[in-house]
Every structure is written in structure tokens, then in C-alpha cells.
Specification:
single chain; 870 residues; alpha+beta; six-stranded mixed sheet; 39 strands; globular; binds ligand ANZ; binds zinc ion; aminoacyl-tRNA deacylase activity
Length: 870
């Protein structure tokens, strides 16, 4: 038998699937629908190993659900707008559109060579006017529905890239690409009002039962609900301002007796007022603005304060006052933009107090601690305990104290208002979608001096990005374009200016999964079609998208519902986040990182030793790391696909570790997968050869070995199905390995053999081929054909399981002839009557007694006894 040749067979089957449109959703298919989706890729130019893993996982689900008789939607597209295309344009002088479309071509070919069961007729690319015109239409609908606002806001400004950065793009206070220190600027921007949905997005998480708990927690934390108190502090009389009180937001009013200062945000109105008459304060504020707005940045930055000279009355210690500072760690857009500091029980407050010599008064006593001796050292005490040093709160728990103090302040008045009011706050901010960039979806509005902001009439959509743009100047090429932004106002007809901001690419990816349900429609969705497919039954992707992409998609789905495009709230029923692909790292003696191709790993006295191929010198084998450019430990999927074929790569991705964990790519692992592929091929060849010795395989009666094999086979079918449904692909793979082993052992046993044995083998091999089909689809098709089966295995129904074979125990039945015990048989518990009868008649002692005659009667008491009457 010849070796299996994936290089020949994989393109062959890919063409067959293509020609037969095997994975195209058919009109009028009324079977139960199943929508499986993997996160669509950014067309960077080449697929990476993370894609291989993601798409291998999704394809198993898709092919399995097809085999289960579902009408499966499994589409693919391109998240095609974004900064890298623009940077490539700048570096190579190439239009971002050309660069992107070339990359899509190349990557589509790569994905096709993976043999994924995708419906390519539904492909969408977010950079095509055919896609983004619908996004523009929905933007207008959202604008009308009050889901969009335009407001001044502070942004992270990258002075080198000349763009606004999302908080996630600010790393250690620097732009993620330029590395330049980020500044703060005020700009008028477009926002989606996601914060109005904070409570709804939070409470609906409870219903997402098919999501990983980890992701649900990340979503909850991001929304960041906190319940606390708004508290008014009366200012001591001063010349510096007419303001008479400061309002703070606190989640820990129970620590009020430990208060030692008030701090205002640098952007607080009162700060601004004071700074106008205090140049040193103005300079302090300016210094604060030289840092990014990212919370992370602020948290890491050293705590800085400026004493305003003002003070407030201590609200629970008559006659005492608290100094008012401006502090860099107080954000204007959270709570009220002002806090009271309780240094004993908040780390930031503690650092601040220590730095400015303010008192540290502990008011929460840890369980079992001695109130006489308990002090705060380097760390604030933030755990549970009993309130002390707090007059009427003494002895209460934190929760009790919170209630008591809330009631206390509710009944007092400052400036004619209740001094304390209960308040819920969310960390979730409105979603700023404006980007001062070319390669994105144009925001469809026009600014007119007379009419203000005017929506582009829907009949004028799409607002198409111009192709002829220049990147010779920093900033947004749409701004510098000679004609594009100059238009007439749709309302008054006077010369007006197009909005040159484009949308955040997270908008594009917030509804692509919806578009796949009606990718060619003239409207964003076709409600009957869309609602029939949605929600996505199983979504699979990287955990790096577990927060923003999913949250924005959940919001956008709601926005689409409100604007009449969709009939549901939650877009993803099942969510799965896969682990990363890792690889060993290698370093040359001089510290250079070496790529896996540049080293050869040998066994030297039982130890693995890397040798740099070019120099022949030993290299160091480093730690196992996520594949990255900087460590040069990348593996090019193209090389793997060429060398081993798609099935091997897919098999290895599925086999090695649970899909939610990281998988380490190793040569040895891939080699093993490749050997297994050949083993299956040999097994199929052997079983065909054995079958050929019998012109016709009749069912016959299984003997003990055949029965044992049937059990293994049916159990494997059951468990592989269960494991795939539970997304435990590595366990499914392990089951298949075991099945292959059992079949190989049986081949040794069976030849030459009675027909029944061959039938058991034939069934086993056929099932094996069906079980590997979702994972190694090309090999499976080849085997299917070799076995002489009709049609394609990708169209074959998932094999049925005979529950009789799943019964764990066998039973041994005494066999009587005319009431006298003559023999015994061992059968699976609950075996069918006829199967038992046949088996009994084939027993040697019984056959001898019958002397070729048929018995008068056989009585089978299931699982008990067999009586033959002659
Ligand atoms: C006094 C206090 C004492 C606080 C204590 C904490 C511990 P979460 O849970 O995230 O909502 N805070 C309020 N507004 C702020 C702002 N704009 N910028 C920075 N910090 C702000 O956090 C609420 C707590 O964060 C509030 O409770 C407040 O400090 C601070 F032992 O008030 B706390
Ligand atoms: Zn006008």
C-alpha cells in the first residue's frame, strides 16, 4: 500500500467540496439551524498559528453539527479596516485599500488550503462600501434614536502618530506604536451611549450560561458597578471661591472617621477656578495632562498633589477640618471628580497621606487585632473587620456602618440638600468611536455653519472613502484631501464640510456576525433570515477579545434591536476562548534570538541541545513563550501546511492540550500527528484487503472478540460525540487514538476469519473514518472513498450508537438443553433476543446435540437464562 499523500489529496478534496458547494447554505433548507463562528481575522498578510488553532477548533464544531443533520452556517470574512494598513501605506507608499485587498487574497488562499468547511459565498470585508454603507445607515438610525452623541472629551493624543488612542493603546503612558509619551487633549467626538446600558449589560451576563466564567467576570469587572454614597463637604469660608461645598463619591462611607483630606481632580471645575488665580496650580494641572488618561497609567503614576489652601468642615468631627488638595489620581469622569481620602484603608490614599504628612487614622480593626496596638504600615487595610475609633459606628461591621452612616447623612443638610445620597456608579464610559484616520468607515454626517450637524441623507449612502489620498503629511489624509470634504449642506444647500472622522474598527466587528446571515441584502439585515440564524450558537476566539469586542457587540446588538434591524439582545449563545500557541525560544551565544528554522535540536548524552545551523555553535534553549515577532519563536503555518498538510496541522492543534489552554507547538508533536495519519491510512488499507477475501460480508453472529470490538467502537462514537459537543477536543482525539489501537489489534486477530468478524472490523474502520472526519477531513474523504462508500463523508450522517453496546457489564447466561445445563455464553447486557439465539445455536456443544436439526423452541429470559427445547 502506498503512503498517504496529503499534498496530492488535500487540494483534490478542496476542489471537490468547492465544486459541489458542500458548505454553502442552501435556500429553503428547513432543518434545524446551527451557527458556528470564529472571530474573523485582520488581514495582516499571512495567517498565523493562532488562526490555525482557532479555525481548526471551529471547523470541528461545524463539520460535526453538519453530520448531526443541522443546517450549518459557518462563514468567514475580514476585519479589514485599521491602523496597520495605513502604516503600511506610509512605509511602502501603497494605498491601504490595495494593501488590504492583496492581503485578503493571500490569506483566503491560505485558509482554503486548511480545508475549512466555510461558506465562502457569504464572505464579507468590512472595508468594502457594500459592507460599511449599512454600518453608516445604522449609525444614522442610532443617531435618530438618541444612541449617539457628540461631546467634548479628553482623549489620549499620540503626538507622533497624530491620532487619538484608545486606553488600551496606551502602554505605560506611551503610544503603542510610536512609543511617544501620550498627551491629553480635548476634542469634540462621536460617542455611542453604551453607558446608558451599563445595568442592562451587567444583569444580562447572568443569562450567558454557555460562556466561560472567566469571560463573564471580565465583562462584569469592566462594567464595574459600585454602590456608594454621594457626600457633601461644607467649605470653610474663603476669598478664593464662591463655591460653598464639595461633593465626593465614596464606596466606603464607613471610613469617614478616618478621613484626612479631600482631593479634587485636576479637571474639577473648582480646580479650574482656583488655577485661574494660582499659576503654580495651573502648572500642576498642566503637568497632570502630560500623562495619558488610561486608568492603568494613572494607577502606576506616582501620587502627586497640590494643596489649594482650602479646607472643609469634618462632617463627623465637630470643630475639625480637612485640607483640600488637587490630586493626579482623581479622575474627572468617575463619580463626582472628587474624593475624601481615608489613608488607613485605601492604598492610594495611604501613599498620598504619607507623602504629604497627613494623618493616618485606622478605623477598621482586623478580626482578632488589638485596638490599642493596631497600626497601619506600608499597606492600607482593605479587608473585613470591625469599625473602631469611630464614635457611634464603633463595633459595627463594615456593612452595618455603611447603612448607619448613610442614614445619618441623609438626615443632615448642606447647602439646603441632603448631605448624603445613595448612588450607583459604573466604570463603563461611553464608547468614543471617532478616529482621526483615513482607513475606516466614514461617519456619515455633514457640518454646516447654518444648520449644525446634518446627517447624510440615506439615499446618498454610502459615503465612500476616496482612493486618491496622500500620506505625505501627518494627520488625517481625509482632512488634506483637496475635494472630498467639501460638500453642499443637504439641508440648506450652502457649502458645508464632511465629517472627516472615521469609525473605530470595533464598530465594524460589532455586527459582522449579523451581516453573515444576509450578506448580500440591500438592507443591513433581513429580519426573518437574520432572526432565524441569530444568536450565534457557538462563537470561538481569543481571550484578548473577551472584554471590548464582546461588550461592544452586545451593545450593538441591542442598538440594532432598538432601531429595528434585529430581534434579540444577546448575539452569542455559546462562547469559547481558546488558549495561545506557544513555542520554545532559542538564543545564540551573543544573545541574538534565533528562529526555530535557524537551529537544529539534537540529543547530546540524553539532553536536548540546540545548534545554530549557520555557525554550528551551540545555542541556548530558552523558555516556552507565546509565539511573537520579538522572540522570533514563530512558526509559519504556510511551511507547516506545505510540509505536513492541513490535516496533520489541524490534528496536532486539537490533540495536545485542552482547547482553552495554551498549546506548545513542537516538531515531535507534528511528526506524531503525521505518523498517526499514515497509521489510519494503513488500517483502512488492511481492512479493505481483509474484506476482499470475503466476497460478501454477512452480518452473522459476533463472537466474543467481535463483540468486544463493537463495544469499543460504539463507545468511541458516543464519547467522541459528547466530547466534541463539550468542546473537549483533546479528549475526543484521545478516544480516537484508542479506537485506532483497538482496531489495529483486531486486524491481527481477524485474518483469516469468519465473516462476522470481518463485519465488526468493517464497521469499526468505517466509524473511525467518520470520527476523524471533522478533524482530518481530507484524509477521511480519501479513506471513505477507499472503503467504497457512496458520496462524501462530509455529507454522511454521524453514526448512530447502539445503546446495547454501551452497557458496561456483560452477563453470562447458562444455556440449558431440555432443562439441563449444557453450556454458557457471555453477551452484552440487554442483548437482542435474536442475537442471543443465533449465538447459542453456534455454540459447539449445542450444535453437536442438535445434529444439524432445528430446535423446537428457544426460550431466552433476557440477562438470565437460555433454554433450548429439542
Ligand atoms: C473614601 C474611601 C475610603 C474610598 C477607603 C475607598 C477606600 P470603585 O469601587 O471603583 O467605585 N473614587 C471615587 N471617585 C473617584 C475618582 N473620580 N477618581 C479616583 N478615585 C475615586 O471606587 C470607589 C472609590 O474610589 C471611592 O471610595 C473613592 O474612594 C474613590 F478606605 O472614598 B473611596
Ligand atoms: Zn445647512
Amino acid at each position: 500500500l502506498e503512503r498517504y499523500n496529503p499534498r496530492e489529496m488535500e487540494p483534490h478534496w478542496q476542489k471537490v467540496w468547492d465544486d459541489q458547494q458542500s458548505f454553502v447554505v442552501k435556500d429553503g433548507d428547513t432543518r434545524e439551524r446551527y451557527y458556528v463562528l470564529e472571530m474573523f481575522p485582520y488581514p495582516s498578510g499571512r495567517i498565523h498559528m493562532g488562526h490555525v488553532r482557532n479555525y481548526a477548533l471551529g471547523d470541528v464544531v461545524a463539520r460535526y453539527q453538519r453530520a448531526r443533520g443541522k443546517n450549518v452556517l459557518h462563514p468567514m470574512g475580514w476585519d479589514a479596516f485599521g491602523l496597520p494598513a495605513e502604516n503600511a501605506a506610509i512605509e511602502r507608499g501603497m494605498n491601504p485599500g490595495i494593501w488590504t485587498r492583496q492581503n485578503i487574497e493571500a490569506m483566503r488562499a491560505q485558509l482554503k488550503s486548511m480545508g475549512l468547511s466555510l461558506d465562502w459565498t457569504r464572505e464579507v470585508a468590512t472595508c468594502e462600501p457594500d459592507y460599511y454603507r449599512h454600518q453608516q445607515a445604522m449609525f444614522l438610525d442610532m443617531l435618530e434614536a438618541g444612541l449617539v452623541t457628540r461631546k467634548q472629551s479628553k482623549v489620549n493624543w499620540d503626538p507622533v502618530d497624530m491620532t487619538v488612542l484608545a486606553n488600551e493603546q496606551v502602554i505605560d503612558g506611551k503610544g503603542w506604536r510610536s512609543g511617544a509619551p501620550v498627551e491629553q487633549r480635548e476634542l469634540t467626538q462621536w460617542f455611542f451611549r453604551i453607558s446608558d446600558f451599563a445595568e442592562e449589560l451587567l444583569s444580562a451576563i447572568d443569562g450567558l450560561t454557555e460562556w466561560p466564567e472567566k469571560v463573564r467576570t471580565m465583562q462584569r469587572n469592566w462594567i464595574g458597578k459600585s454602590e456608594g454614597l454621594k457626600l457633601l463637604f461644607a467649605l470653610e469660608a474663603t476669598e478664593k471661591t464662591a463655591t460653598t461645598s464639595i461633593e465626593v463619591f465614596t464606596t466606603r462611607p464607613d471610613t469617614i472617621f478616618g478621613a484626612s483630606f479631600i482631593a479634587l481632580s485636576p479637571d474639577h471645575p473648582l480646580t479650574g477656578e482656583l488655577a485661574a488665580g494660582d499659576p503654580a496650580l495651573a502648572e500642576f494641572v498642566a503637568e497632570c495632562h502630560r500623562h495619558g488618561t488610561a486608568t492603568e497609567t494613572l494607577e502606576k503614576a506616582e501620587k502627586q498633589g497640590y494643596f489649594t489652601g482650602l479646607s472643609v468642615a469634618h462632617p463627623v468631627k465637630p470643630g475639625q477640618t480637612l485640607p483640600v488638595y488637587v490630586a493626579n489620581f482623581v479622575l474627572m469622569d468617575y463619580g463626582t471628580g472628587a474624593i475624601f481620602g481615608s489613608a488607613g484603608h485605601d492604598q492610594r490614599d495611604l501613599e498620598f497621606a504619607r507623602k504629604y504628612g497627613l494623618p493616618v487614622i485606622p478605623v477598621v480593626l482586623p478580626p482578632g487585632a488589638d485596638p490599642q496596638t493596631f497600626t497601619i504600615g506600608e499597606e492600607a487595610y482593605t479587608d473585613t473587620g470591625t469599625i473602631f475609633n469611630s464614635a457611634f459606628l464603633d463595633g459595627l461591621s463594615i456593612e452595618e456602618a455603611k447603612k448607619t452612616i448613610a442614614d445619618h447623612f441623609a438626615s443632615l443638610r448642606v447647602d439646603g440638600r441632603p448631605q448624603g445620597t445613595v448612588e450607583v456608579n459604573y466604570r463603563l464610559r461611553d464608547w468614543g468611536v471617532s478616529r482621526q484616520r483615513y482607513w475606516g468607515c466614514p461617519i456619515p454626517v455633514i457640518h454646516c455653519e447654518a444648520c449644525g450637524t446634518v446627517p447624510v441623507p440615506k439615499k446618498d449612502l454610502p459615503v465612500v472613502l476616496p482612493d486618491d489620498v496622500a500620506f505625505d503629511k501627518p494627520g488625517n489624509p481625509l482632512d488634506h484631501h483637496p475635494t472630498w470634504k467639501h460638500v453642499d449642506c443637504p439641508q440648506c444647500g450652502r457649502p458645508a464640510r464632511r465629517e472627516t472622522d472615521t469609525m473605530d474598527t470595533f464598530v465594524d466587528s460589532s455586527w459582522y456576525f449579523v451581516r453573515f446571515t444576509a450578506p448580500h441584502a440591500d438592507t443591513p439585515t433581513v429580519p426573518e433570515e437574520t432572526n432565524a440564524w441569530m444568536p450565534v450558537d457557538q462563537y470561538i476566539g481569543g481571550v484578548e477579545h473577551a472584554i471590548l469586542h464582546l461588550l461592544y457587540s452586545r451593545f450593538f446588538t441591542r442598538a440594532m434591536k432598538i432601531t429595528g434591524h434585529l430581534g434579540l439582545d444577546e448575539p452569542f449563545k455559546g462562547m469559547f476562548t481558546q488558549g495561545m500557541v506557544t513555542h520554545e525560544t532559542y538564543k545564540a551565544g551573543d544573545g541574538r534570538w534565533l528562529s526555530p528554522e535557524e537551529v537544529r535540536v539534537e540529543l547530546v548524552e540524553g539532553e536536548r541541545q540546540a545548534i545554530e545551523v549557520a555557525t554550528g555553535r551551540p545555542a541556548q534553549i530558552g523558555s516556552i513563550e507565546k509565539i511573537s515577532k520579538s522572540k522570533r519563536n514563530g512558526i509559519d503555518p504556510d511551511e507547516i501546511l506545505k510540509t505536513y498538510g492541513a490535516d496533520t496541522a489541524r490534528w496536532f492543534m486539537l490533540s495536545d492540550s485542552p482547547p482553552e489552554r495554551d498549546v506548545q507547538w513542537t516538531e515531535a508533536g507534528v511528526e506524531g500527528a503525521s505518523r498517526f495519519q499514515q497509521r489510519i491510512w494503513r488500517l483502512v488499507g488492511e481492512s479493505v484487503a481483509i474484506a476482499e477475501q470475503f466476497s460478501e460480508i454477512e452480518a452473522g453472529v459476533d463472537d466474543e472478540d467481535a463483540l468486544a470490538l463493537r463495544k469499543i467502537v460504539h463507545r468511541a462514537v458516543k464519547q467522541v460525540g459528547d466530547d466534541i459537543e463539550g468542546l473537549r477536543f483533546n479528549r475526543a482525539v484521545a478516544q480516537i487514538y484508542e479506537l485506532a489501537n483497538a482496531l489495529a489489534r483486531y486486524v491481527g486477530l481477524v485474518s483469516p476469519a469468519p465473516a462476522a468478524r470481518c463485519a465488526a472490523l468493517a464497521e469499526g474502520v468505517e466509524r473511525l473514518v467518520q470520527l476523524i472526519a471533522p478533524m482530518m477531513p481530507h484524509l477521511a474523504e480519501t479513506c471513505w472513498q477507499t472503503l467504497g462508500k457512496q458520496g462524501l463523508v462530509c455529507d454522511a450522517a454521524w453514526p448512530a450508537v447502539d445503546p446495547a453496546y454501551l452497557v458496561d457489564d456483560t452477563v453470562t447466561l447458562p444455556v440449558q438443553v431440555n432443562g439441563k445445563r449444557r453450556a454458557e455464553i457471555t453477551v452484552a447486557k440487554g442483548s437482542a433476543q435474536t442475537a442471543v439465539e443465533e449465538l447459542v445455536l453456534s455454540l459447539e456443544p449445542i450444535a453437536r446435540m442438535l445434529e444439524g436439526k432445528a430446535p423446537k423452541k428457544i426460550v431466552v429470559v433476557p440477562d438470565r437464562i437460555v433454554n433450548v427445547v429439542v
